[in-house]
Specification:
two-stranded antiparallel ribbon, alpha/beta, TGT-like_sf, globular, TIM Barrel, 13 helices, seven-stranded parallel sheet
Length: 374
């Protein structure tokens, strides 16, 4: 079972050096996990605050106590942490306890002030969370929270505007010009599952490294290998072109537990899949939908992490290698990479933001705060 730990450099399957984990699952967990026992010299951990769990009833601890626990856990086990926020999605969640936009903003501001005043690790990157269900809310949130950026090293984009790269590059430029990004080391986009958007972020990171900070990192997370796999038994076969974009090519296992021959090789290639017959993944448990058991689903998640990481890495390498138009990289991604370099590398940022707006907003319409279930 140790080989399923992809953070382990000695795994016999594969190693991936980064992960996001929610403090909602970490706080109060006493048993060692792959997260708490990781080698911090070779891996990076982003620790989310568990904002969605907070508004959906998953956290029963009083908020003043919970935010203390979160910061302590983040600093003990993480490298990058996200301040406890109240997602604006809470306004659409029955029983969340929040009914007004300013309740979310006011409480997030108080939580951020607490984190700033109470943090203890000088090498810990703390992220300022940006929320909003639309541009108006995101702008109001930005105006309130951006002054705190002087005291923080990271920014986390969340809510329904998080994939609007026109909107957020415009605000980041404003912050740069106001001297608010002098300490910026990290940008994280919470809960996004579009591979094309991931490649777009690679272009932004390249531009920021050229023109702002050569060491800045951009990351994003997706729960697909865990939530989608374990709840719906859907895995990724690779990438496919669809509608001028790239998307994960899915395969859904049948709910009929006898649909595949368990004595045959697992049909899809990965370090784990190449070693096992299908029956090792799905033993035909008569008490579960489709015959899956806990161990088999853990194996399936390991397979899926590998497939998604490889697919996105290949898409990034292709975007870097292609020198002519009409290749496999979506046109809006190519133009966005071009835009980022002009926005951050020239004195005419507003002009280039206007000129490239439609490309930068390509994924704005598919951004969904429901991805951000943390």
């Amino acid at each position: 079972m140790a080989d399923l730990n992809f953070l382990l450099s000695t795994s016999g399957l594969f190693t991936y050096e980064a992960a996001l984990y929610s403090a909602a699952f970490g706080v109060g967990q006493l048993n060692p996990t792959m997260i708490t026992t990781r080698d911090r010299s070779t891996t990076t951990l982003v620790v989310d605050s568990g904002g969605y769990s907070l508004i959906s009833g998953g956290i029963t601890t009083p908020l003043p106590t919970y935010r203390v626990q979160v910061l302590q856990w983040q600093e003990q086990f993480g490298d990058v942490g996200i301040a406890v926020d109240i997602p604006t999605r809470s306004l659409d969640v029955r029983g969340s306890g929040y009914t007004q936009f300013y309740q979310c903003l006011d409480q997030t501001e108080k939580n951020t002030q607490y984190a700033i005043s109470s943090r203890s690790r000088s090498d810990f990157i703390l992220c300022n969370v940006m929320q909003g269900r639309n541009h108006a809310e995101a702008q109001t949130w930005f105006e309130r929270m951006s002054p705190y950026q002087r005291l923080l090293e990271g920014i986390a984009l969340a809510g329904d505007t998080k994939q609007d790269m026109w909107f957020w590059n415009k605000r980041l430029i404003q912050m740069r010009d106001a001297g608010l990004l002098d300490n910026l080391q990290w940008i994280h986009v919470l809960g996004t599952a579009q591979p094309g958007f991931g490649v777009m972020l690679t272009g932004l990171q390249k531009a920021l490294r050229r023109h702002l900070n050569p060491h800045i990192r951009i990351s994003y997370d997706s729960a697909r290998p865990f939530r989608n796999v374990q709840a719906n038994h859907i895995i990724t076969r690779g990438l496919r072109e669809i509608g001028g974009d790239i998307a994960f090519w899915p395969y859904q296992f049948s709910k009929n537990s006898s649909a595949l021959d368990r004595s045959q090789r697992f049909p899809f290639s990965s370090p784990l899949g190449d070693l096992c017959p299908y029956g090792d993944f799905n033993p035909g448990n008569p008490n579960t939908v489709g015959g899956w058991d806990t161990t088999g689903l853990m194996m399936l998640s390991n397979h899926e992490v590998y497939k998604e990481v490889q697919a996105i890495a290949e898409a990034n390498r292709l975007a870097e290698a292609e020198v002519t138009v009409g290749g496999g990289t979506p046109w809006h991604v190519v133009r966005s990479w071009e835009a980022f370099d002009l926005i951050w590398g020239t004195t005419q940022s507003d002009l280039h933001l206007r000129s490239y707006k439609k490309f930068l907003q390509h994924y704005a319409g598919v951004s969904n705060s429901k991805d951000d279930e943390r």
